Amino acid sequence: MRRFLFSILLVSCAATADELADADKFLAAKQYHQALPLYTRLANAGNAEAQYRVGEMVWFGDGTKQDLQAAHRWFEKSAAAGNPDAREALAALERRKTRGGEIAYWTQAYMGEDLRAGNFECKAPAIPAVSKTNADVGATRKAIEDWQTCYNGFVANMNATAPIVRRVPADVLDMMTPLEVDQARAHIDTVYRDVLARAQGEAQSVRTQQFAWEQATQRFVGEENARIARVNEVETRDIIEARRRAQLYAEINHRERALTTTSVKR
Fold first, then answer.
1. Which of 76, 90, 107, 226 could potentially form a cystine with 183 if both were Cys, beta carbons 3.0 to 4.6 Å apart?
2. Pseudo-torsion of CA 189, 194, 197, 203, nearest 10°?
3. Distances from the Cα of 88 to the Cαs of 71, 72, 152, 203, in angstroms?
4. 34: domain range?
5. Which CATH number characterizes residue 52's domain?
6. pLDDT tens-digit profile of 44-82?
7. pLDDT tens digits, residue range 129-169?
8. In terms of pTM, does the model score above 0.70?
């Protein structure tokens, strides 16, 4: 009799395993309306894994209306049977009660403030229309270089934080449904593109100002060098003329002295 009952038990366990495997395949394929009935039947029969899956589907609204209270009940049953995943799910549901606002923040309110803060708050340098002294040229170049270093760091940080859903803390992700994760991903993606577009626009503005400043400064330097050259040329001519006149006066004086000496001797 015991052997007979044992054989029946083995057949029952095998059937349960097959149904669970079928339900898992349906769930992986997102065929929720086929997975949920299988999981529900097994869950009602006391299968802890199925109880966890039913709770998960009810929580996520997969193939059924979302019902967090029902999900909590199924997770409690599964956790009582020793399922560690169910215990984690219960903890996540508890966090939702006190930290649900964080889900709304990442799915709707996050504006990328941290992306342009601290070391990545790259304020545009003050670039004059033209620099007329070496000191001003040096100070302007340093301001541009400092901004460029900051901007490169900002771009590197943007690249390093991909995929963008990494911005969401892990313990917040754990209490989100897949739909909420998708919403957060879409929202943050929009924020990223907006922040990057604004930063690129600011960078283009800085480069435009830099180019105009360099051109104006180069023109000023060229014009100033030409002016100095003209001044030097005039001064050189004046010096030469002055020397020529001085030499001429000296020669005249010399001749006059020579004539005076000759006249006296006579």
1. 107
2. -120
3. 13, 11, 41, 46
4. 2-99
5. 1.25.40.10
6. 999 999 999 999 999 999 989 999 999 999 999 999 999
7. 999 999 999 999 999 999 999 999 999 988 887 666 678 88
8. no
